[in-house]
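so the lab meeting is tmrw and i was supposed to have these ready like two days ago... anyway. pasting both below. for each one the top line is the aa sequence and the line under it is the structure tokens. i havent really looked at them closely yet so no promises
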Amino acid sequence: MPRFLSIVVALLITLLTGCGGSAPDESTMASHVAVSDQWASASDDGMAAVFGVFTNTGDRDATVVAGDSPAAASVELHEVVRGGGGAGVMQPKDGGFIVPAGGRHELSPGADHLMLMQLKEPLRPGADVTVTVRFADGSSLPVTAQVRDFPGGQEPYQPGTHGRG
């Protein structure tokens, strides 16, 4: 019986100490980035934007390269560029959003933002929407944003231009 007991104790210790468990990896981009002041634009259908401020406490740049959300068919990283007449045009952003080491990167109306594409249901003011942003190193960060009424900048969308204006 003592041998059986020692095996059970060894198994319990292994389970409780998390051998092979999921301790946070402090070397990932996501482990050093936080998001604040996040919010999303209300929309009945189509697209909605997500804004906020990424802050990087790490010693290397962190690059947001993609995202996904249960609220939309896809999430795109967008920028707004000024055309010949000064009007803003929204387009996918090549290379992602770089959050500099020890710095910040703001997502704001009329500039860089996350775009929820092909909404699965309306986003109503006061509700929350979750987006998971993905970094160049494969790590990810869940972000919850409150939905707010916002008419938007009404920039036309130029899909597939990827930085060429």
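ok protien two:
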Amino acid sequence: MDGGKTSNFGFNDDGILCFLSCICVPKDCILWEAHSSSYAMYLGGNKMYRDLRDLSWWPRLKCEVIEFVSHCLTCQKVKVEHQLHSKLLQPVKIPL
């Protein structure tokens, strides 16, 4: 900001860094708060991404959310399979 390369950043009345009137927050804090705080429910990467994209944005948001969730052991343990378990394969009858 001091170099004057961009005019989109600035400080608000409380001294908080903003970009186009939106508060700037480190993405690591946002990811942790959305995933690991005491009220988080380990909803998985897709649900966490849908919740975060309404409130925040940064480049590669979806990739970073998926990567963050993939490193969580609890998320891997509670992952629900949405597909039915396959049964034993049956041979296909050939018509004569």
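from a quick look at the 2nd one: The two ends are 80 Å apart (CA to CA). The longest strand covers residues 9-11. will dig more after coffe
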